[in-house]
Amino acid sequence: MEQDDIFKALADPTRRRIFDKLSAGAMNASALRDGIAISQPAMSQHLSVLRGAGLVREERQGRYVNYEVNPDGLAEIALWLGKYRAYWPARIDALRALLKEMDQ
Amino acid sequence: MEQDDIFKALADPTRRRIFDKLSAGAMNASALRDGIAISQPAMSQHLSVLRGAGLVREERQGRYVNYEVNPDGLAEIALWLGKYRAYWPARIDALRALLKEMDQ
DNA sequence: CAATCACATAAGTATATGCTTATGTGATTC
DNA sequence: GAATCACATAAGCATATACTTATGTGATTG
């Protein structure tokens, strides 16, 4: 789970879409497929990349494998972003609002 | 300047390094090269990608071209990250501290 | 226990990407 | 104004990547 793996994983729009869908709630690989035009092996490969990056984690449940967002991956991005906080104030009102929300 | 361009730009470790170096202060392409083993055209191409992603902006100064961090790109990542704030609390103490800092 | 299901892995292929060398371009300098 | 400097662009090439079809694997089902 390095920054390189994380950014490479998120560089693919399909993987960002999968991640986004997962963020709405844990789901197995088949459920993830509907609504996205993608073959079963392709989905499996994408999930493997997301997992390797630490953005997602899996749990076997019978013959299904349940996937969920792994907060560690997001935290890693937040830390990367944090390095450049000197440049945030110029345009960061939206984020600031989100953070206020977090404090509640 | 779309999310796709931004994540693709940051997926390359050399470009992240260039961006990181730029974040310490504006610099021209030649100055960016020292300390990084990279040819002149390669640097030019990387800067072009970073610029296309809105992570960096340039300004001609005589025969030099000065590059600097473009906060818009960072803001875009912050917004992307913000969508998943539901997953932050698990590990986000460090970011929270950074944000407190920002409010001052 | 044979069939099926949910998913992973293998192997091949087409495109994308990051580099190289060569050349172009606008600006300064002698 | 010819040479040089700082950088961009072009073209070619090697590797990476995202997909495909085919097959493997562990678990449930009839």
Care to describe what's here?
The structure is a homodimer of 104-residue chains. Chain A is α+β, with helices and mostly antiparallel strands and 104 residues long. Chain A has one domain: Arc Repressor Mutant, subunit A. In chain A, 57% of the residues lie in helices and 13% in strands. A 3-stranded antiparallel sheet of chain A has the order 1-3-2. In chain A, a hairpin with a 2-residue loop joins β2 (56-61) and β3. In chain A, α1 runs antiparallel to α4 (40-52). The model of chain A has no long low-confidence stretch (mean pLDDT 88). Chain A binds a DNA duplex (30 and 30 nucleotides) through residues 8, 12, 14, 28-30, 38-48, 60, 62-65.
Compile the SSE list and pairings:
Two copies of one chain form a homodimer.
Chain A: H1 3-10, H2 13-23, E1 27-28, H3 29-33, H4 40-52, E2 56-61, E3 64-69, H5 71-82, H6 93-102
Antiparallel strand pairs in A: 1-3, 2-3
The structure holds a DNA duplex (30 and 30 nucleotides).
Q: So what's the CATH class of chain A?
A: Mainly Alpha
CATH architecture of chain A: Orthogonal Bundle
- Kindly, what is the distance between the CA atoms of the first and last residues of chain A, rounded to a whole number of angstroms? 30 Å
Q: What does the oligomeric state look like here?
A: homodimer
- Across the major sheet of chain A, the strand order is 1-3-2
| Secondary-structure content class of chain A | alpha+beta
Number of H/I helices of chain A: 6
If interface size is counted as residues with C-beta under 8 Å from the partner's C-beta, which chains form the largest one? A-B, 38 and 38 residues
Number of discrete domains of chain A:
1
Helix content of chain A: 55-70%
Largest sheet of chain A: 3 strands, antiparallel
User: What best-fitting shape of chain A do the alpha-carbon axes yield?
Assistant: elongated
Number of distinct beta strands of chain A: 3
Strand content of chain A: 5-15%
From the alpha carbons, calculate the radius of gyration of chain A and give it in angstroms.
16 Å
Report the mean per-residue pLDDT of chain A as an integer: 88
